[in-house]
Amino acid sequence: MEKQIKLFLGFLQDDKKLSENTLQSYKRDIMQYEQYLDNNNIKYDKVNKEEIDNYMKHLNEIGKKSSTISRNLATIRSFYQYLLKSKKIKNDPTMNIESPKIEKKAPSILTSQEVELLLSQPKDVDLKGIRDKAMLEFAYATGMRVTEIISLDLDDVNLEEGIVVCRNGVKKRNIPLGQISLKALKEYIEDARPILIKNENDKALFVNINGKRLTRQGFWKIVKYYKEQAHIAKDITPHVLRHSFATHLLQNGADLKAIQVMLGHSDISSTQVYMQFQDEGIKDIYKKTHPRA
């Protein structure tokens, strides 16, 4: 099985062009599945539907969430479909297995006032403050995922046109930057980044104080620090800024399809989760725009 897993991961990387983050998720899932099969003396190419069902139950018994179990099943399904196409097996044991139902929770969002409070915390009086202000403004202005933000290179930003090119695997999308974000980003690129980087050939847009590309953990710590500085009780992560970006656009009259494109959702159903926050925004728009309001 070890050889087939290696070939499968190579296929995902070379043919499917999956991002490194997604690839690591597939790897973790399939390695965990391999361990389960080994522990139970089950051969991967002799697995049947019942044994896949038992694995799903096992994941549930050890406390895995429905979303995690569903992702594991998707990984295993992809693995067996790959084996089927490669003619290593004759039947796909995952064929008639349904994914567990996932309860969609309302995303955590900030109010406009909380966003203003958070973004006002970094002071552009030193290199770190200039960078942090640019980063937080950028995260809220674009709604990009953390992985996407830290993967950006300097060349992905066009300051003159006010856009950033976001690449996720083979997909890419252009996202506009607002004036406040653009101003903060320009100050960072011109005044702080050249001093922070140790090598002029470094391409990373956002770097840490050692001049290296910022990590997910580094980004998360920065957000947490300013959340505490702002004395905001809500739990704030970089993804909360993404949720807030989408919700505030929708509340202010933005088209759902446009938000889908900016967020990089392949399915609009993922974007529709923000519709539940639209009511108050619609009322405000109605009051401001309807002649008889």
Question: Would you kindly provide a written description of the structure presented here, covering whatever features stand out?
Answer:
The chain is mostly helical. It has two domains: 2-85, Orthogonal Bundle (DNA polymerase, domain 1), CATH 1.10.150; 112-289, Orthogonal Bundle (hpI Integrase, Chain A). The protein has 13 helices and three strands. Strands 1-2-3 form a three-stranded antiparallel sheet, with no helix packed on it. The longest helix is centred in the N-terminal third of the chain and has 20 residues, at 20-39.
Would you kindly provide a brief summary of this structure?
With 293 residues, the protein is mostly helical.
* CATH level 1 name of the largest domain: Mainly Alpha
Strand order of the largest sheet: 1-2-3
Please provide the ordered H/E string of secondary-structure elements.
HHHHHHHEEEHHHHHH
Looking at how many chains there are and whether they match, the oligomeric state comes to single chain
Number of domains: 2
**Radius of gyration based on Cα positions:** 23 Å
Q: From the 3D structure, determine the CATH topology of the largest domain.
A: hpI Integrase, Chain A
The count of strands amounts to 3
Which bin fits the share of residues in helices? 55-70%
Structural class by sheet pairing and helices: mainly alpha
Tell me the CATH architecture of the largest domain. Answer: Orthogonal Bundle
| Biggest β-sheet strands, sense, barrel | 3 strands, antiparallel
Query: Which outline best applies?
Result: globular
Number of helix segments? 13
